[in-house]
Structures are given as C-alpha cells and as structure tokens.
Amino acid sequence: MELELAALPPLERYKLLIGLVIPRPIAWISTRSANGVANCAPFSFFNVFSEDPPLCVIGINPRSDGTLKHTLKNIRRTGEFVVNLVDEATANAMHISSYEFTEEESEFEKTGLTTAPAALVSHPRIAEAAASLECRVFRRIEVSATRELVLGEILLVHAREGIIDAQTKRISEQHYRPIGRLFANRYCTTRQRFNLPGELPV
Questions:
Q1: pLDDT tens, residue by residue, 168-179
Q2: Rounded to an integer, what distance in angstroms lies between the CA atom of residue 131 and that of residue 124?
Q3: What are the residues whose beta carbons fall under 8 Å from the beta carbon of 2, sequence distance 6 or more?
Q4: What is the mean pLDDT of the chain?
Q5: pTM for the full model?
Q6: SS3 call for 155
Q7: 9: which residues sit within 8 A by CB, 6+ positions away?
C-alpha cells in the first residue's frame, strides 16, 4: 500500500501517523492561567531534540471546538511551562486530565494531583510526576492554522528520589517506569527491554 498524504484529509493523516509512529513519549504540561487556575494537559507530539542547548519540542493543536488550548494560551502569555513525565503510577491521572475541562476548572483538582512550586519558572509542576522539566520558550513556530510547535529550553530537572544517579546521571530502569502513547486510548509500558550487540558482526 502507498498513501500520498497530500491526498488524505487531515483526520486520516492524523490517524495514520499516530498509529505508525509509536510509542511516543508524553509531555504532561502544567501551567497556570491568568486568573490563577492550575492547568495540566498531555501532549504526545513531543520529544527532546538537543542537549546544547537542551531543547524539547511539543506540537499543540486547537481544542475540539477550534479554540486555543489553555496550555498554549498560558505559554504564549508567560513564555514558560513545565513538562512533567508520565509513569505507570500517574497514567490514569494523566488520561483524565486530557478531557477538555473549562478554563475555570483545574485538572489538578479533577484528578487529585498536587501542585508543587517550580524553582525557575512561574508555573507549578506536578508533585506526583516521576520527573519534571522546567522550560522557557525558545521559539514558537506556527506551522499551520491547526498546529503550533513550541520549542522549550529546559532549564532545570526535578526527579523523584531514586530515578537519577547523583554521580553518573544515569536513569534507574528499576525506579523509572514511563508509559508511551499509542493511539486513541491505547498506551504501553516499557517493561520489556533488551540489549543488542555492541559491535556489528563481521
């Protein structure tokens, strides 16, 4: 089968791409609105792309009614945000927070999550998250009427005790159990892991 994407409607392109490019990490972004409501929402068009400078990239689309997502509105207003990383323990809360609540409703309250202060940015982080990345907007790119890319410079990393080795900065596979986004309401764990040979056979 060959599919030319230009010939497909956007919804079919979306279903095709999110079904093929899996698993995807989840940026669980926390911000605070202008009237003080703590907000958090998951985005799976996300990854890190650079270490010098340390950058992450998130693709954000509008809400189902075509209006601006509260997360993007808060990012545009402040130039800051926090990316919280999702693990097995917080997966259900993350999924609930994907519901389109009104701007006056806090996803923290709806999911039973706790706000924690960030060190360098004005928005809260999710206290229960396995790790959190405090970010400042590096660049915003409006790629279409329905998609904006936000490049964030990662300023500071918070991590749950035991996840990062203080000496080597290696991540503990035992203590960090992230989940990945597949498609629709499907997710996956990273429990089955394997090594490949360090050298190619002659």
A1: 999 999 999 999
A2: 13
A3: none
A4: 96
A5: 0.94
A6: strand
A7: none
- Please provide residue 74's backbone torsions phi and psi, each rounded to the nearest 5 degrees: -70, -35
Do residues 118 and 127 touch, judged by C-beta distance below 8 A?
no
**Number of DSSP helices (H) and strands (E) in the chain, helices first:** 4, 11
- 86-109 pLDDT per residue, tens: 999 999 999 999 999 999 999 999
Assess whether pLDDT exceeds 90 at residue 9. yes
Question: Is residue 151 within 8 Å of residue 56, measured between CB atoms?
Answer: yes
* Joined tokens for residue 114: 């706790």
Q: What is the number of structural domains in the chain?
A: 1
Residue 198 falls inside a structural domain: no
Find the DSSP H helices in 50-104: 70-78, 91-97
Look up residue 125 and give its two tokens: 């982080």
Q: Has residue 125 been placed in a domain?
A: yes
H/E stretch holding 116: strand 115-116
CATH code for the domain in which residue 94 is found: 2.30.110.10
